[in-house]
UniProtKB/TrEMBL annotation:
InterPro entries in the record: ARM-type_fold, DNA_alkylation
One Pfam family this sequence matches: DNA_alkylation
Entry protein name: DNA alkylation repair enzyme
Gene3D superfamilies found in the cross-reference section: 1.25.10.90
Length: 224
């Protein structure tokens, strides 16, 4: 069933809108005022922030992943993301964070568009977690890294490394997975003199992960 099929007809669209409203209300009710102020300050964001604790947000996302079809998750995640609320964007990413999603074209389309609109650490981290699983599912998608690396948005550039951490951690990578590693290392070389802390930290973290499994390759990179 396609996303369009999932909302075919007024009744289906109304049901989906009602479900989305129910989810948003549940999310907002989990918020804590004091935590909202801390989240806003920690992420340096002007977005509306409800202060939902991470554990509660993860539990809600887990329950929804089990209760909704893939198409419903994609459509509801898209609608929640469009609202622009900090906690909602975290939930939208987590609704699509799963190793096996079949089919996953809709999830990939959303996530690969959202990456250009990451605007703080928490949202970028949540998005990277979801993107990583889709890249691991289909390494050929790594061609998008070239576009991310050239983006003006620092959080998009950071995703080149944050969303490919899984490839650095592989013990026995396939040829396709090795190709992704080399693509990322190429961008690490290009960005190694970037003075933005978030980029430097992301590269260092990626190399630390790789050094646990291929220390010779990391040594060669650093020597170069």
């Amino acid at each position: 069933m396609s996303g369009e099929d999932a909302v075919e007809g007024p009744a289906a669209r109304h049901a989906l809108q009602a479900k989305k409203a129910e989810i948003v209300e549940a999310l907002r009710n989990l918020g804590e005022t004091d935590r909202a102020a801390k989240d806003r300050a920690a992420n340096r964001t002007d977005r509306e922030t409800w202060g939902v604790p991470g554990e509660a947000l993860n539990e809600l996302a887990k329950d929804l992943r089990g209760a909704l079809s893939v198409d419903q998750r994609v459509l509801i995640a898209d609608a929640i993301w469009r609202d622009g609320v900090f906690d909602g964007r975290l939930l939208a990413c987590k609704l699509l964070t799963q190793a096996r999603i079949r089919p996953d074209g809709g999830a990939w389309t959303l996530l690969s568009a959202w990456v250009f609109h990451f605007d703080c650490r928490a949202i970028a981290d949540a998005g990277a977690g979801a993107l990583q699983r889709r890249l691991m599912a289909d390494p050929e998608r790594s061609e998008v890294l070239d576009e991310w690396a050239g983006a003006s948005n620092v959080w998009t550039r950071r995703s080149v490394f944050a969303a490919t951490a899984g490839f650095a951690k592989l013990v026995h990578p396939s040829d396709a997975q090795m190709a992704v590693r080399e693509r990322v290392l190429g961008w690490a070389e290009t960005m190694r003199d970037d003075k933005r802390p978030v980029i430097r930290q992301a590269i260092d973290a990626w190399l630390r992960d790789l050094s646990k499994h291929d220390p010779d390759r990391v040594a060669a990179f650093r020597a170069g």
